[in-house]
Amino acid sequence: MATSKNLVFKSTIFPHRNIHKYTWTSPDGKTHNQIDHVFIDRRWHSIVLDVRSFRGADCDTDHYLVIAKVRERLAGGKQAAQSFDRQRFNLRKLNEPEVREQYEIVITNRFAALKNVNDEEDVNRTLEHIKENIKTSSKESLGLHELKQNKPWFDEECLGFFDRRKRAKMQWIHDPRQTI
To answer: Domain boundaries in the chain?
Structure first.
């Protein structure tokens, strides 16, 4: 059954003392057996850290409680990380009094036009209008923040260094008496 459903046993592979492996005790108290197991999909089998039975948990049964320690791994979406390319506004310009006044005027004019919006309109649509007004007025007054461009670490100087070494090595191959 386990192989047909692509499942794996995880309760028998961890090294424990025998008292922590037994999951059932017979009514006479002498016979012990491991009949309760933990199955997991083969794809996720590496998240199980440990499986053992706990004899101290009293459940009014002849079976012992089986506990599995599991490490949860969540995969962050790569698309979500790449789509974080949102616009950043140059907020440092707000420290300048002229720019701040211009921004206040633009945003006040936009929200004055928004007062005429119908009260029966959907709340979500109103929120979208507010967001769009803030974004456009910020873009007009403040401008966008330019991201710092990093210099490439591999430049022409590095390429020249590798090129010199390659020529020297090739020369040594052709004439082994010369040293580099």
So the answer is: 7-70, 87-141, 150-180
